Amino acid sequence: MHRRIIVPSALAASLLLAIPASAADFVPGAPGIGDSYYPTSGNGGYDVSHYDLRLKYQPATDLLEGTATIVATTKQNLSRFNLDIGLAVSEVRVNGRLAKFATSGAHELEVTPATPLEKNKAVSIVVRYAGKPSEVKIDGWTAWARTPDGGVAAQEPDSAAWWFPSNDHPLDKATFDVSVSVPDGTQAISNGVLQSQSSRLGWTRFNWRSNKPQATYLATLAVGKFDITTDRTANGLPVINAYSKDLGDNAGAARASVERTTEVAEWLESVFGPYPFNSLGGYVPNVTSGFALETQTRPFYSPRQFANGANASVVVHELAHQWYGDSVSVRDWKDIWVNEGFARYSQWLWSEKEGEGTAQELADYVYATRSADDPFWTVKPGDPGAENQFHIAVYDRGALALQALRNEIGDEDFFAILKGWPQRFAYGNARVADFVRYAEQVSGKPLAGLFDTWLYEPSKPAASTAAPAASTAAQAGPAARAAAPRAAERSKPVQPKSWKKIAATNTVHETDRPGAHRHDAH
């Protein structure tokens, strides 16, 4: 018989392991994730890895009923944690046990589990809820749009709180399964791949899966009567486009634009590298808004985007976001330039490819047509402020910064950066400062001064982005070299042929959220 002898120090250690943390060691998670512009967005104390949403929606009444299962990991010892949701909650379970809950603020659901949650532990949260999303106002606005035959959730920087509970900030991305039951004859569109579809007792259920990390505001839901087109790319990715049956005069132009999704994505792969997600597509519901949004894998387009005819440029913009904004997302909403400056510049590159004006010509035109006293130059794209997050300067001056970078370091390094950045931060988050450092690493040049001039100085730079550097001009073709003169040296700037189509994506600013200028092509 062997007896195990435990020395005093070992005994003390074993007892320590057996004693759970005291109640004093468990504290509530923060009601916000720490964003500079939106302090109450997101929540602290945990990280979500997956959302499973099982929904039922009645278009006639706008009633949405849902059960959300959230898979997460605790990041601290939690006595309580928050979720963001605007609909009425009837029950919450944490790790299978009923939890207490209360509401506070505009969208905070405070959940107190039956037993405190230890740090670095897996946790499952089940929330049952219901309500009419169109009747929910948060800070005076709504991200849910009623349509004649259903409803749509699509907005920036927030839309999740109108249809599911979440940790609502781009810093906490997760994969998604979205299962929606709607009356027969109605469809439900969401992100990713349609896994299955089945009908029973007058209801049809659509099961969608988005298998790569996705920010909550990029999750979308559209219920209505759609014409749906399906295809596959050369690489086998499913392409799903959907159009409301009642788009009227905009129907043809919408299709002529969105049906070019595969072509545009293939071209963008040549600029930004491999497409990062499991499907492609877009949808055009019958809404009255004027904006478009880069909802992951399936951008949302308002019919008004096509009021003046087909416009592939807006498709370029939203698909460019799949790399810049969706795969690589902001760490903080003040970093919006890492989304919008690049999506706008992609429109300039498309113009260059189509022979409708080089990026340099577009840069010269923007610079020349904005006088020094134009308030445009007082907005800092690198940190525009919440009230100017979607200001035109974030787009156009943001693109000017990229043309200035291109001219400074030459095409070889510039395009290596455009392709390398989405790989470097794939499925993650990044700041403006991260991009500056990355550009310096690739080019081997100090670039802080250049970015400060174009992204942070609240005044018009003394000179345009300038003609391409000699090495760049030597690599460029005759057309690009001929297009190099500075706008400042021209008496009258020449409007590039593509300008009107590009400008059509930013002429209408949504102002439904007080204090925020929502840009047309988010």
TrEMBL record:
Enzyme Commission designation: 3.4.11.2
Annotated Pfam families: Peptidase_M1 (PF01433), Peptidase_M1_N (PF17900)
One of the protein's GO biological processes: proteolysis
Domain of life: Bacteria
Biased segments, Low complexity type: 466-486
Residue span(s) of domain Aminopeptidase N-like N-terminal: 49-218
Keyword Metal-binding: yes
Region (Disordered): 466-522
Residue runs in coiled coils: none
Bias kind Basic and acidic residues: ranges: 509-522
Location of the Peptidase M1 membrane alanine aminopeptidase domain: 310-454
Enzyme type, top EC level: hydrolase
Keywords: Hydrolase, Metal-binding, Metalloprotease, Protease, Signal, Zinc
Catalyses which reaction(s): Release of an N-terminal amino acid, Xaa-|-Yaa- from a peptide, amide or arylamide. Xaa is preferably Ala, but may be most amino acids including Pro (slow action). When a terminal hydrophobic residue is followed by a prolyl residue, the two may be released as an intact Xaa-Pro dipeptide
Cofactor: Zn(2+)
GO MF annotations, alphabetized: alanyl aminopeptidase activity; metallopeptidase activity; zinc ion binding
Signal peptide stretch: 1-23
Annotated family: Belongs to the peptidase M1 family.
Name under which the protein is recorded: Aminopeptidase N
Organism listed in the record: Streptomyces venezuelae (strain ATCC 10712 / CBS 650.69 / DSM 40230 / JCM 4526 / NBRC 13096 / PD 04745)
